[in-house]
Specification:
The complex is a heterotrimer of chains A (about 200), B (about 500) and C (about 350). Chain A is mainly alpha-helical and about 200 residues long. Chain A contains nine helices and no strands. In chain A, helix 1 runs antiparallel to helix 2. Classes of the chains: A mainly alpha (about 200), B mainly alpha (about 500), C mainly alpha (about 350).
Chain lengths: ~200, ~500, ~350
């Protein structure tokens, strides 16, 4: 148990520290790298909780795909942090005030938090000791009880895709494109002519 | 362990139909010839939306729940969905010429409207916080895209971006509120929530109330009620006009339906907690809609403020429905609101059809001054636009007057006299700018003439909406019975 | 004290020993893979290849390693030092870390985790960071262009790889690598039912490891050497080792998914005399030979052709494959998962 405990504190501490660095790093690329570190350690926390499938998916999706695209964009943009921070001091008092109010409110809510009676009855998926692997358990929930949400999320992603294409794709009539079908279906006899040339007479 | 069985799909038949149809439409657009695929897909989309109406109407009475309680169909959903489908279909019809004039004919436009409609239907039928959020996002995401559909115009891009950023913020607020409610109840299902709050007899912790307030803020953003209205004028002005026509009607009605379902359903017992907020939002919207519109010169911007005001009037009904403990009164509130929304739809579609006909030398114009002298150059159009303006202003005996009458009556029954009085005052102020448009059309010196040609579809839309507005007073029965049975579904436990 | 030793110290030592047992042969393998590459390609070019250092040039990789080791590490003045030094380390350690879940034989695996295949997939999808960081930190346009190309390429091909892995999972009914191999013991090697998928998977691994004919990130003629153009000495050596270790890893992954891992081709007398790990290594060597063979045979793809192949050919095919394989498994009721559950 000691090892699990130590591992938890390590992952948790690094996650929090990386989270702080994401917003405080001076270089945006460093911010993205710290974000990745935070994702990675959160995956570690998932593993400690026994949610190995979620841990791996977190790495594959967020670290392996989403953050790569972030990094792409951040690297390509020439972000001047000095410029971004120009208005920082100007808005600081207002921002600090709003932050303070929010923290106070959160304190009030947290302090007086009440949980309804018999909440455990309301859970959709009661946590029971299952003999299956957690991939199987997740699949069983996702494709039956949550199939509606799953499909709805799919529709949202479809819209996102259509939107991205509609808003950015431009037809370039002057661009010359390769037509592989045409190339492959070309026959030598269409373009080549073989002539017997007797020596000395020319074509 | 057996392979699990699928939940029953029949209650969600219209949604499934629209989802599949939208993908087929997408393929139709991709694979049909490039010159007229927009036209083909537009007609097909209108057909799909119209065919979906009988699917929706399959529910006659009662309440069916499926997908583990996440999805509900009842007559309330049928009423709102029918309004949404009709307004989405007319928006596509109205967009046809506009897209061609602006050179943004692309087949994705009608498909995105169909997808947005799907999202609206999903949120109307939501019976769970997650389902609500997913429907709302599907709707919003499609609308963000079509708001900036005219991507080469800076104003359209700005409209889309503004809508997107603020919409994302509103979604964040909504989710934050939901998480608080989940933290209290341990469930996202509306039915379970309703039971929990029923057992609590109106006494809940601060956390839940803050959660409800956050959700209210998120939903108020979607219906563009004050103080979450800032995006509306800019987005309405910047977005392509048929998109504005859609924005003014379908998403508003759908979000109002959602508003009713959420507030009356799970939080119905907590009316004492949220009624005052709704009253405030309603009053603020009515006043802002009335006063801020006075100085406008752009008719789309004017319509934005007008719709903010109308949402204020409609919310009076919801405020009445917040009178906890008196089911008859609550039903009256919701019913008046539903009637108001129905009439609102016809008025707005008609008005936007007129706005879309404002062309000069084949180009769209949208200034109020451009209407000067319309009574001489195109008396028919001027007359029908005057009818809509009178109706919006609430001049008897037009439909708009009756709509207002119903909500004010409900407010008086609920002893919310202040609300009714402010409503009447606001509509008097509002009448000023509606009637100013009529004055410009009939009494100002004509500038250059507007183009005359009106296509057959536009004529049909104008005539139908105009007839409904004028003759509603003689035959209001269909809308009234529809609203009544819709309301009955909500209060029949 | 004794208890402390057995519960805390000894397991750590045991794990370290296991790691060494994997890493040392792996590094030797990497060294001789470079040798094999030069020899094989030389043979295909009708040349002799390295033949001076040691018998048949067998000590050549050692000599190369020594040379790199003793050179000076140059860090460009405009470079972002920390990221610049971290990039090769990440590439190299990722290539090694992945080996933790590869079963070399029945039960011969460091960590037999339930989501082994996902772990492998996750690690291989991280490889792109070494490349991106190197390209960005070098502060050089060649390196940056190389990194961008490489990242786009790896991300694109990962998607179809993921889908192909899903088809294997459907057929095998488990995410555990040992279970996947054992499922092939009960039926046939998955290359037979999933032949087209195996081909696409192999081509995708070529792209994923930036090998020919998809070596655009390095394309000497256009980009000098791509993302590691600014690297020298050990930092370069780490990239180099990482890249070859990745090749071996991908060969191992293909072996497990499609070629029955440690299983002999037929479970009869002469074949099953050889122990499992040997079969595993033989299969990997065959696949590695194909890597080299491809390099000597095919010209480099153009960038748009590369993207076209990934997004317009492999992605639709592999998506369709998921649907078809899933449909067939369901229609003929041969899902191993459901069958196992039924027999429980």
């Amino acid at each position: 148990m000691i090892i699990q405990g130590l591992a938890f504190y390590m992952f948790a501490a690094i996650t929090v520290a990386a989270g702080v660095m994401v917003i405080s790093a001076r270089n945006p690329v460093h911010s993205v790298l710290f974000l990745i570190l935070a994702f990675f350690n959160s995956a570690g926390l998932f593993v400690l909780m026994g949610a190995e499938f979620l841990a791996m998916i977190l790495v594959v999706v967020y670290v392996g795909a989403v953050a790569v695209l972030f990094m792409f964009v951040v690297m390509m943009l020439d972000i001047s942090l000095a410029e971004m921070r120009a208005g920082f001091l100007q808005y600081l008092p207002l921002g600090a005030m709003i932050g303070f109010v929010l923290v106070m409110e959160l304190g009030i809510i947290g302090g007086s938090w009440v949980i309804a009676d018999n909440v455990d009855k309301n859970f959709v998926a009661p946590i029971v000791a299952m003999k299956t692997t957690n991939t199987e358990a997740l699949g069983n929930m996702l494709y039956t009880h949550y199939v509606y949400y799953f499909q709805a999320a799919g529709m949202i992603l479809l819209v996102a895709m259509i939107g991205a294409i509609v808003l950015t794709h431009r037809k370039r009539p002057d661009a010359r494109k390769q037509n592989i079908g045409d190339q492959v279906s070309r026959h030598p006899s269409d373009t080549l002519e073989i002539k017997k040339v007797s020596s000395g007479s020319g074509v | 362990m057996p392979l699990a069985t699928l939940p029953t799909l029949t209650p969600a038949l219209p949604e499934i139909f629209l989802a599949i149809a939208s993908m087929l439409l997408l393929m139709l657009g991709v694979f049909s010839s490039e010159e007229n695929n927009t036209r083909t897909v537009s007609y097909a989309s209108v057909l799909v939306l119209i065919v979906a109406i009988p699917f929706v109407g399959l529910v006659t009475e009662g309440r069916t729940v499926t997908f583990g309680g996440a999805f509900v169909t009842d007559t309330f959903a049928v009423y709102i969905k029918a309004l949404v489908l009709v307004s989405a279909a007319t928006a596509i019809i109205m967009s046809k010429d506009y897209l061609k004039i602006q050179g943004i004919e692309r087949f994705e436009f009608p498909v995105l409207i169909v997808l947005a409609t799907l999202g609206m239907m999903m949120m109307i039928s939501a019976n769970d916080l997650i389902a609500l959020y997913l429907g709302l996002e599907l709707q919003s995401l499609s609308l963000y895209v079509i708001a900036s559909f005219q991507r080469d115009s800076a104003r359209s891009a700005e409209a889309g971006l503004k809508y997107f950023v603020l919409g994302a913020l509103a979604s964040g607020l909504l989710l934050y509120g939901m998480s608080m409610i989940y933290g209290f109840a341990g469930t996202t299902s509306f039915d379970t929530l309703a039971n929990i709050f029923h057992d609590a007899h109106g006494h809940v912790s601060v956390g839940v109330i803050v959660g409800i307030v956050f959700m209210l803020a998120g939903l108020a953003f979607k219906v563009s009620a004050v103080p979450f209205h800032m995006w509306t004028p800019d987005v309405y002005e910047g977005a392509p006009t048929p998109v504005t026509a859609l924005f003014a009607v379908a998403p508003k009605i759908a979000a109002m339906g959602l508003f009713i379902r959420v507030m009356v359903g799970p939080f119905g017992e907590l009316g004492a907690q949220w009624q005052q907020i709704i009253i405030f939002i309603s009053v603020a919207s009515m006043l802002l809609g009335a006063f801020a519109a006075i100085n406008q010169t752009n008719i789309k911007r004017l319509m934005a403020y007008s719709s903010i005001g109308h949402m204020g009037y409609a919310l009076i009904g919801l405020a009445v429905a917040g009178t906890a403990g008196d089911a008859a009164l609550q039903a009256l509130g919701v019913q008046s609101m539903l009637i108001y929304l129905g009439i609102y739809m016809f008025m707005n579609i008609g008005t936007f059809a007129c706005i879309l006909l404002m062309k000069r030398d084949g180009r769209m114009v949208e200034g109020i001054d451009d209407l000067a002298g319309l009574s001489k150059s195109n008396p028919g159009l001027a007359m029908i636009l005057s009818i809509f303006m009178f109706s919006m202003a609430g001049i008897p005996p037009l439909a708009g007057f009756l709509g207002k009458l119903y909500v004010f009556q409900a407010a008086i029954q609920a002893e919310l006299y202040a609300l009714a009085v402010i409503g009447v005052l606001a509509s008097v102020v509002g009448a000023y700018y509606y009637i100013r448009i009529i004055k410009v059309m009939y009494f100002d010196d004509p500038v250059d003439e507007l183009d005359r040609g009106i296509s057959l579809e536009m004529k049909a839309i104008l005539v139908v909406t105009g007839v409904v507005i004028v003759f509603f007073v003689f035959y209001p029965v269909p809308l009234l019975t529809g609203a009544e049975s819709a309301t009955a579904a909500l209060f029949h436990k | 004290m004794v208890e402390f030793w057995w519960t805390y110290i000894w397991p750590v030592i045991w794990i370290l020993l296991q790691i060494l047992a994997i890493v040392v042969p792996l590094l030797v393998g990497v060294a001789y893979l470079t040798y094999a590459e030069r020899k094989v390609i030389a043979a295909m070019h009708l040349r002799r290849g390295p033949n001076v250092v040691g018998v048949y040039g067998l000590l050549q990789p050692i000599a190369d390693g020594m040379k790199l080791f003793f050179k000076e590490t140059v860090i460009p003045s405009g470079a972002n030092r920390i990221v610049f030094v971290m990039a090769p380390m990440i590439t190299f350690s990722l290539a090694l870390v992945a080996w933790a879940v590869i079963p070399l034989g029945d039960g011969l695996v460091v960590a037999d985790i339930n989501v082994g295949i996902l772990y492998l997939f996750a690690i291989s999808s991280l490889g792109v960071y070494g490349v991106l960081m190197a390209g960005w930190a070098s502060n050089s346009k060649y390196a940056f262009l190389g990194a961008l190309r490489s990242a786009a390429q790896m991300v694109s091909y990962e998607i179809s790889m993921g889908f192909i892995i899903i088809t294997v999972l459907i057929v095998a009914g488990s995410l555990n690598l040992s279970d996947i191999v054992n499922a092939q013991k009960e039926s046939v090697w998955f290359i037979i039912p999933l032949f087209p998928m195996a081909v696409i998977f192999f081509i995708s691994t070529l792209a994923e490891t930036n090998r020919h004919p998809f070596d655009l990130p390095e394309a000497e003629a256009e980009l000098v050497a791509g993302y590691f153009v600014e690297y020298s000495s050990m930092t370069f050596a780490l990239f180099f080792l990482g890249e070859y270790a990745n090749m071996i890893l991908m060969a191992g992954m293909t072996t497990i998914l499609f070629f029955g891992g440690w299983l002999p081709p037929f479970d009869i007398a002469p074949f099953n005399w050889l122990p499992g790990p040997i079969w595993f290594i033989i299969k990997m060597c065959m696949l590695l030979f194909i890597f080299l063979w491809v390099r000597a045979t095919f010209p480099r793809y153009r960038y748009d052709q590369l993207m076209r192949l990934g997004w317009k050919v492999f992605l639709p095919i592999s998506l369709a494959a998921v649907v078809i394989v899933g449909g067939v498994v369901l229609a003929f009721d041969i899902s191993p998962l459901a069958n196992a559950a039924a027999s429980k």
